[in-house]
Every structure is written in structure tokens, then in C-alpha cells.
Amino acid sequence: MAAEIHSRPQSSRPVLLSKIEGHQDAVTAALLIPKEDGVITASEDRTIRVWLKRDSGQYWPSIYHTMSSPCSTLAYHDSKLIFVGQDNGAIMEFRIAEDFNKMNFVKTYPAHQNRVSAIIFSTEAEWMISTGHDKSISWMCTQSGSMLGRYYFTSWASCLQYDYDTQHAFVGDYSGQITLLKLEQSSSSLITTLKGHEGSIACLWWDPVQRLLFSGSSDNSIIMWDIGGRKGRTLLLQGHHDKVQAVCYIQLTRQLVSCSADGGITVWNMDTNREEAPQWLESDSCQTCEQPFFWNIKQMWDTKTLGLRQHHCRKCGKAVCGKCSSKRSSYPVMGFEFQVRVCDSCYDSIKDEDRSSLATFHEGKHNISSMCMDVSRGLMVTCGSDRVVKIWDMTPVIGCSIATGFSPR
């Protein structure tokens, strides 16, 4: 039975099941309704819409609600509660009727002074946690609607993840930094900050089972942070040509699904031994041929040579000149799915089998700014600035599982 827990077809592609069009502006969030053939969408056109799948297979709007400000993000809970973040900083709570044909207003939370970027609802703590472009995270009581606490950052807070058991919050910001906070009833404490990206953090995903944090950035890369121990191990994943806008880790099959602004959908095999990318070494001269770099005035004068530009081998991290790093190679075990600069000795050490890809690449054929997965059904929904919402069958890519009941359609 253990051998049947999961299977991963390597050559299959996501199947586009349906396209939803109708919004007049960019769709900022789209969520699959658990256990229902339905989708909730939010848009810059100030509308919240609930789409239900009809017998014809098409999705038709059963709820159409206009907000006072452009909608920036969404959160949904199985109790049929919807939290809608807006451009004006407010978050509005609604309850959907049992037949999904009506949405009743519950309360407004004055959570931020600027655009809301992410919302998480914790039933255990009775908190509504959110981040915004006012450079803050806030947590509010869902019973009274009152503010419990707030923490400020130096940059726009762009994304949020939360550990429900330990009440730790992970906040990514536009400076490229991730902050780990411990939230209390009326206070918070800073645990640590994670720095590794060269661009703003666009998305986060927290896996509480393996205690892994995944971050996607405008630098086109993903970093896996091992929060659970192992001496702070980090893995770099480079397999997108544009900024990474959404990530989702499937713990059962050890796969990471990521989407980028150019429509790229990448599925990473994380169930394999990977190598951590090295720290880049600094030197005043090439660590292979010992020729000086252009700032090494003394050695240039002593040897009567012109200084060279410094580069770095992505495999060993050595500081090398262009002549000693003239070749390029992919190295998927270190996360480099595309060809990168390596020094000549590292290039010679990479075998052909070392270049075998550990990811599959697919084309969503539309701008993707947000993604949501229902792992139990193998469904994914994507949306973006092109105003199109797409619903995908991902079971051909992420496999089928006895444990969750997936079956290929």
C-alpha cells in the first residue's frame, strides 16, 4: 500500500477546465469554494462575485456585490464567511447564504490606512489577521471588531502566512525581507528576519507539517526556508522567467506549484535530495587564474595588467573572471533549472545526468497574479490583470492519491 500513496506522471500537463470572464478590471483574487463547484472572485472593478458551476459545465454568477473601493484580496472560511480587503484599507466581512445566492454584510474592520494585501482568519483565536501597504500587520477580534495589535515594517507588507498552532506570523515585504513574529492577544515579539531575495516578496506558503516556508519574489526565484531546524538550511529554486506571484506546497506528494506573471506554471519535485546554493565568495583577484579584478589597483600596478570584472560560479561560489567561467550549465539539484554561469572546473564536474530537470514547466497562457489550489480535488484556479479566471485540473501533473481521494478525470 505504501508504494501506492502517490504517483507523479512526468509528461502530463494541466487541463484547462473552464474560463471565467466578466470582470471589467484586473482580478486580484480567486478562491475555490471547498466541497462546492464554485469560485469566489474579487476585482479592481469593486465587485465580489460568486460563480457556481451549472449543469452545462459553465460557471455563472450567483452573487454580484459592488464594494465602495477596489477589492485587493480575499479570505474564505468553511463557515461561509468571506473577508474582503479593499484599496482603502478596510476589510469587510460577509456571510454567504446556504444556497450561495445571497451575501449578507456582517461588519467592517478598519484594519489599515492603505491597500490591504493579505487576510487570514483564525477561528481558534477569533482573530482576523491582515497586512497592508501602510507597512503594517494588524490583528483584530472577530467578535468585537476591535483592534488587538499592530506591528510596523520599513516597507509595504505584501504577503502573509500564519501558523495556527504556535501563533507565528510570516510577513513578506517590498524590501525583499521576511519577518517572523509571535502574535499575542495585545502584543507581538520579533523572532527573526529572513534575507535572501534580491527583489520584493510577492508570495509566501507555510507548511506546518515539515515546518517549511516558501517565498516567491520579483527576482524570479523561490527560496525554501527550513524553519524547523537543520541549521537554517535554505534552497534556491530558479525556474521562472518573470516574477513569481504564487506558490503552493503539496505536503503529501512533496511537490511545489509556482506561478509567475508571464503565465508560467512550474511544478517542482521536492521529494529528492537537493544541494544548498553556496554563499558567494569575495576576492580581490580571480580564485582560479589569480588575475586582479578592476578595483585591485596594487596588483594591477605590480603586474602591469588591466583589472578584470568579477563573476561568481553558481555551483561553488568562487569569485572568478569571465575567461575562467566561460561556460553555462543547468544544475537542477541546486535549483538551477536554466543555464547559469559556472567556473570551468565545476562545468567539467557536472555529469549529463546531473542536468536532468527536477521540475515540469507549463504555460498558463495568461497573466497570473494569484493562484489557489484545492489539493483534495486536484483543482487550481488562476487569475490576473488580463481579467480572466482559469480553472485547471492539476491531477495529471501532481498525480493521484488514495489518501486524499484524487482520481484523474
UniProtKB/TrEMBL annotation:
The encoding gene: WDFY1
Stretches assigned to coiled coil: none
Gene3D superfamilies: YVTN repeat-like/Quinoprotein amine dehydrogenase, Zinc/RING finger domain, C3HC4 (zinc finger)
Organism placement in taxonomy: Eukaryota, Metazoa, Chordata, Craniata, Vertebrata
Extent of the WD repeats: 20-51, 194-227, 237-278
InterPro entries with a match to the protein in the record: WD40/YVTN_repeat-like_dom_sf (IPR015943), WD40_PAC1 (IPR020472), WD40_repeat_CS (IPR019775), WD40_repeat_dom_sf (IPR036322), WD40_rpt (IPR001680), WDFY1/WDFY2 (IPR042234), Znf_FYVE (IPR000306), Znf_FYVE-rel (IPR017455)
Organism of provenance: Microcaecilia unicolor
Full protein name: WD repeat and FYVE domain-containing protein 1
Annotated function: Positively regulates TLR3- and TLR4-mediated signaling pathways by bridging the interaction between TLR3 or TLR4 and TICAM1. Promotes TLR3/4 ligand-induced activation of transcription factors IRF3 and NF-kappa-B, as well as the production of IFN-beta and inflammatory cytokines.
Superkingdom in the source lineage: Eukaryota
